[in-house]
Amino acid sequence: MNTNKSDYLIIGSGLAGLASALKLAQLGKVHLITKDILSSANSTWAQGGIAAVISKEDSFESHIQDTLVAGAGLCNHNTVENYVAQAPERIKDLINWGVNFDKRKNHQTSDSFEMDLTKEGGHSYRRILHFEDQTGLHIHSQVLKKVLENKNITIWENTFAIDLILNKQIDASDMSSTRCVGCYALVKKTNLVEGFLAKEVILATGGAGKVYLYTTNWSGATGDGIAMAYRAGARVANLEFMQFHPTCLYHPDSRNFLISEALRGEGGELKNSSGVAFMKKYHPLGSLAPRDIVARSIDAEMKKSGDPCVYLDMTHQNPDFLKSRFPAIYKKCLEYQIDLTKQPIPVVPAAHYLCGGVLTDLNGQTDIKNLWCLGESACTGLHGANRLASNSLLECLTMAHNCYEKIKDSKSTLFQQEPRPWSYPEKPDDDEMIVIHHMWSEIRQLMWNYMGIVRSNKRLLRAQARLKNILQEVKEYYSEYRIHSDIIELRNIAIVADLSVECALKRTESRGIHFNIDYPFYSPENDLKTKPQNTVLLRGLR
To answer: What pairing do the DSSP bridges indicate for beta strands 3-11 and 30-33?
Structure first.
């Protein structure tokens, strides 16, 4: 078995992974591995933008308060304050890396330009920087260029991390504290497993939207980092908080195209099939209410009417403005014979963003020494029980920076002993792949039906019982058949689904994204500030 060594090992090629690679490359050699091509990441699908206090009318206090309100009492105040305060500096990083945010003419001086800030649900001011309606794609592509130019960064595409390697797994007699020293990964080109050792290991594998039947995520968002960290012994937290984006395009030929919240920020109105705007009766902010409220309101309207979707109406806006501000969404809708300048867009909620994950501090440090987790895979307390729109790309950048600041003073050394060779079951799996795909579909269907926008104890217990059986079946396939990326992903989504249901059963209240009809209310005394233990923690397997 080949063993590849570096100073820093980064698993994942989204914005958190790329930003940390650029930062850490200043300190030493970086290996960045990603299970697909470099552009395959949730970051590239982010349409709306990135939140930061730029306008003189805005303030850090306002951004902090908006984040806390959206988080429904479960945000970590220190984390929120840290990330919001450094946001302008992280925007400067992006600009230095070649990112060009949209600008508009300055209202006070006609010969100068200023950032074209937009507004999204839950924000008190316009503070969302954007590039058309493809902000994530633009940011990711520009940062990726810098990564590819850096000689200290070695890229491993189509290399699927399987499990983390701990020092005691290599040397049981090692009396030092448990630490992460690397990982095993399947190199798809050779179909062989190789070892990767490093002084510090950074998980940046993104979210877990593919645990659900309907999602806005890319096809590889299978919670890999969360499952790996849990198997290694790290704690995970708040996995019951899967945010459902209120507006995913409803069309039989499109299951995961996001209709950005920025449309509602620019005056879009949610209406039922009769053309009646309904959001004001659910929340005073109407269509710009926090995402959890909008998603539940849409769900209630659909159940009340029996309609398969609701509609986002932009037809009152200037057509030229819509075409220039939202070119990608306009073009995509036209592919399905929907002209958003003339007709409302059919939309439904879909699994979008995981607010829980591997428990870390605001720097990304996990329970395990030398193991860090950044971005959507991590649970820092920034999002609490519901993420404020456009805080996700910000979190990727702030965590990458904080992680770098901590690691640069680290005295960690490379583990010298070679990892044990990977054991290869030789039993062919070709005929059994159909069963693997069936289990994958079953997990996603039951999570959608029993662990969706509205939950109950009975539904959760049904999901848990079936998932326990599936986990046993997955264990058998993983142990008996030749390693395959589909089996690795199935193993991960089964674990994350089961942990998510367990977290949901432990939360005996409704809060933020998590709504259980058996516990429809929450009390202020359960807020994290007054009850620090009100975070659902699950201890890892080690």
So the answer is: parallel
DSSP for 16-29 reads HHHHHHHHHTTTS-
As a whole number of angstroms, the distance between CA 146 and CA 93 comes to: 12
Asked if 93 and 121 touch (Cβ cutoff 8 Å), the reply is no
For residue range 118-154, list pLDDT tens digits in order: 998 889 999 999 998 899 999 999 999 999 999 999 9
Distance, in Å, from the CA atom of 4 to the CA atom of 181, rounded to the nearest integer, reads 12
pTM recorded for the entire structure: 0.92
Phi and psi at residue 526, to the nearest 5° = -90, 0
DSSP string, 298-350: HHHHHHHH--S-EEEE-TTS-HHHHHHHSHHHHHHHHHTT--TTTSPEEEEEE
- 3-state class (DSSP) for residue 267: coil
Active site residue 455: no
Domains in the chain (CATH in brackets) are 3-107+114-240+355-407 (3.50.50.60), 246-351 (3.90.700.10), 430-522 (1.20.58.100)
Exactly one of 90, 127, 179, 291 is catalytic; name it.
Answer: 291
pLDDT tens digits, one per residue of 398-421: 999 999 999 999 989 999 899 999
Q: Is there a contact between 419 and 3 (Cβ–Cβ < 8 Å)?
A: yes
d(CA 53, CA 1): 50
Find where tokens 């590819």 sit.
148
Can you tell me which residue has the tokens 């090629």? 13
